[in-house]
Amino acid sequence: MVKRGRPRKGDELLSRDRLLDTAFSLFLEHGYGNLSLETIAREACVSMRTIYSQFGGKAGLFGAVIRRCSDQFVTSLSIEHVQELSPEEALTSFAKQFLYSITRPNVVRVRAILIGESPRFPDLATQFYDQGPQRTLDHLAQFFAQQQQAGYFAAINPHFLAEQFLSALRSERILKLQLGLEPTPDEVEIDVWARQAIHLFLHGSLRRDNTELEPSRHT
Fold this sequence. Notes:
71% of the residues lie in helices and 0% in strands.
């Protein structure tokens, strides 16, 4: 008889990744409310007990899926990643990765599912916001605070700076994508989008040779 011991750490990570990949695919296919944990467990070849012990239930599993998606944003602004970059270069790197990820069709679909089902499942909305947008916002605010200490940014509330920066990045184009009114942008379009938003955020829209704009002659 073969004696089964505790799974090795590498095997555990592979099993977790397989579960998260399967859950993500099933959430996309069935939505949130119509998908049972039994289905997820069966398709991922894990036990219900494993899901409950690791994630606490379906909302926690959904949150883990979103957290894994947001890991790349957090990593892109880590101290190790940005220490050799200027703040503008660091923000550009973050912005391109952020915009590319949130404009992928599967991610747009997940957001649509969330918006449609969160009134019935408040835990779903909480998990999504805490593990995705809030986590990204907090990390971005930390970045701005560090750069303020270095003298790069003005003494403005770093969370407000983070909120405004993310708002500038998303712009009206995200709504158009969600409504199917605009095609998925490619990497070249993402690069232009990110650089335009960052230039406006960092340098503003007023002409530098005027403290007060003259009225337009064409009005």
